[in-house]
Specification:
alpha/beta; Rossmann fold; 3-stranded antiparallel sheet; 9 helices; globular
């Protein structure tokens, strides 16, 4: 795991954007496409707004997916799909492919089945996964002290499954840990001293984020700023 800290969010996002651009270009050259899983939450939205600054990229060859989602309508302001689409802007979303995780708002079991089918490519090797972290040490929708999280952490094959959050909207959909690690690069983007303290705590206490920072199965880079 590589730790990088920055004095400002702007300097962090400038370097992170350069790293993302480099990895996209490598993937386009090698595979003629790039698969990127994005996390929701407020922290990375300003980064996503800067994606349009990446020049001379054929966005039609970029596929975006979601690390996790709330089980709400895709047009809801609680939806990661909605908020990330707004941040990326039409300049990108009208050319690229952005695949949601919500297809059936009434039947959670059917929705998970449809989400797996629609996101099957994202269960395989991905170009980049961008993660966040909560002050409880959760990442994606893998929450501490939760039996469904334990399943998502222990599964040996990539998967998408439901989970329950401690806050509303409680019903969540998430890639499991195996799927998250099935990526050439995993980026953890966190802000604030409180989250840095949780990050340090997770080296001692076993939290969901502990599995990310201690993994040897993929390259993880943590970007932090106050």
């Amino acid at each position: 795991m590589i730790w990088k800290d920055f004095k400002t969010a702007d300097s962090l996002e400038k370097e992170l954007l350069n790293s993302i651009e480099t990895n996209i270009r490598i993937s386009l050259k090698e595979n003629n496409e790039a698969l990127i899983l994005l996390s929701g939450g407020s922290t990375p939205l300003s980064l996503y707004k800067k994606f349009k600054e990446i020049k001379k990229i054929d966005w039609s060859k970029i596929k975006f997916g979601l690390v996790d989602e709330r089980w709400v309508n895709n047009s809801s302001k609680d939806s990661n799909f909605y908020n990330i689409s707004e941040a990326l802007g039409g300049q990108i979303t009208e050319k690229s492919t952005f695949i949601p995780l919500v297809y059936d708002e009434l039947n959670e079991k059917k929705n998970i089945s449809q989400a797996k089918k629609a996101n099957i490519e994202f269960l395989e090797k991905k170009t980049i996964v961008i993660l966040g972290m909560g002050t409880d040490g959760h990442t994606a929708s893998l929450f501490p002290d939760n039996s469904k999280t334990e399943i998502a952490i222990s599964q040996l094959t990539p998967n998408i499954l439901d989970n329950i959050a401690p806050v509303s909207p409680k019903n969540r959909i998430t890639h499991n840990l195996k799927s998250i690690f099935n990526s050439k690069k995993v980026i953890l983007y966190i802000k604030g001293q409180e989250k840095k303290d949780v990050f340090e705590k997770s080296k001692i206490d076993l939290l969901p984020i502990s599995y990310v920072i201690n993994t040897l199965s993929t390259q993880v880079e943590t970007f932090w700023t106050k």
